[in-house]
Protein: ATPase cation transporting 13A2
Amino acid sequence: MYYFRSRIYGPNLIDVPVKPYMQLLFEEVLNPFYVFQVFSIILWSIDDYYVYAICIFILSIISISISLYETRKQSVILHNMARLVTNVTIRRNSGVEECVNSLELVPGDCLIIPQEGLLLPCDAALLAGECLVNESMLTGESLPVLKTPLLAGERKFSSESERRHTLFCGTQLIQAKGGGLRGDCAIAVVTSTGFFTAKGNLVSSILYPQPINFRFYRDAAIFLIILAAVIGTIYSIVVLFRAKVSLVIRSLDIVTIVVPPALPAALTAGTIYAQNRLKRHGVFCISPPRINVFGKVSLCCFDKTGTLTEEGLDVWGVMEGGPTGFSELVPEPRLLLPGPMLSGLACCHTVTLLRGQTLGEPLELKMVESTGWVLDAEFGHHKVLAVMRPPAPHLQAQGSISEAVAIVQRFPFSSALQRMSVVTVACEGRSAFAFIKGSPEMVVSLCRAETVPEHFSSKLHSFSSEGLRVLALGYKPLDSKLHVNATVFVHREEVEKDMQFLGLLMMKNLVKPESANVINTLRLAHLRSVMATGDNILTAVNVAKSCGMILSKEKVIFVNATPHTDESRPTLMFSLEDEEATGLQTYNFLKFLFKSLNKCVIMLFYCCSYRVSMCGDGANDCGALQAADVGVSLSEAEASVASTFTSKTENISCVPLLIREGRCSLVTSFSVFRYMALYSLIQFCSVLILYTMHTTLGDWQFLFFDLPLVTLLVFVMGKGGPSNELHPCRPPASLLSLPVLASIFLHTCMIFLGQLGALLITTSQDWYIPLNSTVFGKENLPNMENFSVFGLSGFQYIIIAVVVTKGYPHKKPLYYNVIFLILVFILFALMTVLVVFHVPFLSPWLQLYNIPDMNFKMLLIAVAALNLLTCFIVEVSEYMKLFNSLLWSNSDYIKTVGLA
Structure:
């Protein structure tokens, strides 16, 4: 039997291969960009442009080496994280215990979990006993979770719906007890192995992350293809055909000019600067390209508990209830008289004891602590799940004395069932009780109607409206024959029915002080804020009002859904909160449909064209963090791999920072791309004008422009940093929008006219000597035409860098980027020296013609200054049009969804 199962499922191994360097090299070199680099280097070598070819080759080798090292390093880390091999004890068909390697585990094997626990190498369903598990690797929850046995039944097992009974691969089992013949171990059955486990799914999501469907990167590729294939090649073929020179080499050379070799590295420079700035603020990013995506976020989702509010809950009070109504509010449970209510608060939980320390969910820890009862592990000579001992008699409330209670069976909390319950036995089995704790509506539905106070609904509404977390408790006596030695316990269905209502426990969850300021900041920036929570709707509304997500003048729409039945169709009922508390009024379906959809789960927001961010504490938000465009985890646990960003600050103050950095990075990427495109167009215009004159730029001139001048400028353009405020206007994400294309077109016209004007001024001088038309290209160097075009284009590279590096309103002003400004002044001075003076060694090296006419040189610098002025005017006018269009479109959109 095992043989056939092992053939079907294979070895229990999450194998992430570490690729050898040669394989990584071939995969890296086959990247389209590096293929283009190889093509360019070969072309430049054929054209005797060895210097630039060698420089680009060296830079490419360095880039590939760094990329290979980082890729290999990440692969090794993931391989070590995924691979888990250990020895385990199992039972198979013979029922005999045997020790095997975890690689041999297959679904169906019976796994023996020792009392001291182990690192689980598979997914398994717990059959007997209880396990204390650290699931931080999967959920981010630092507190251990108690796992209880799977209940018998005919239903199909699902690890998602039976999480409380499932042990997940990669989690640390801290302690096991209560199962097996000796009661010192737990028993589980293997359900999944390898990549089919929870850890396998996590590793798969890291190996194959959600693709970035971002318009900017797609438009960049389209823009370059059109620019290179259509404009450059067609014109160069016409010009070169007339000059009767090599069409293939010269046409392909134009393509390498239009697509800058440094473009990919330049585009990543801004995101790297942003990543480093975020790191200084305690925010870490595992995918730098996602920083740009954050710049387009239009809706921010927040988890409630632990994110908007404090993680812990404080007991606010307890109120006993019965057929005659509710008693007075008791601020501390320890002040209650001994009875079922006090016993229920002390026993209905999954708190456990590990090495003398109580562990469990914060809510339950607070509840138990408020009763004054103490958790113990021994109940005479009997092994039980837990023992609750009351405080010393002199510390108890006046009245009868409470006695120790043993918890012999637990039915853990389930979000689907909205409740948990326990079975307890008093000393020597004199009395047995079942206690239930959960959502008030669910507990009441399981209690006998005559035990529920008449004004239950109004009390619940009152407490929930105050933002209190309300839990209800119930109990019932069980068969007195039940005792600590019992081996057959009652079923959950039998326990959780015909209960008697005990009362309400109120707990206060305070809003973090930073939440209101952040929500207000987002609101002023016209960014929508949404709370995602499974808590009571009235409690959630109170928290939303406390943090400013809902303003005092706004009303809340409640949506009630009824499912499809044989007698009726499914319906949605929309009710509007009445400020005077006179009840709920029913409104038309279509009137509030759009607003209601905008309050639903994350995936629905995609249908409404939102870019969504999700911020959670990492405990139960992994799915939402992965579903959102960008996720922010406030937990540093290993579950942060589910989110792109992880913040060391445990509040939402990092969200505006991330949006500001995202907008700054996105605007920088736009500026860099436009600059690289215009840099190509400047060189493109220079080459085509000089081709028309039967000459070209020299190899060292190309090298001077491409490396010392442009490359230095482009890599310091993004160092300015983000604006200190969030502006209502969001940056554009499309390079193919009319304002962007119009700006590039107008700048190109100014560039072309400037170079053409410089050439015409040169040819109109009395000392001008025409070129030799019998030779072409570099054989005509140096010459006057080359000098004028080189001089003006050199200024244009610097001018355009200054013009497109604007900040408002998403970046700090230009004067904050000190390094960029210093570099600009140095390069301006260098170009002025090259134009005005014939510098020994440098001018001959650049093959610059020596024109002695100083008036002509001053006129050339004046044309460059005029070019700066015209480009600046074009940029400001186009930018203002773009800014106004975005602002108005955002305002119209906000009015559409009812936020204005």
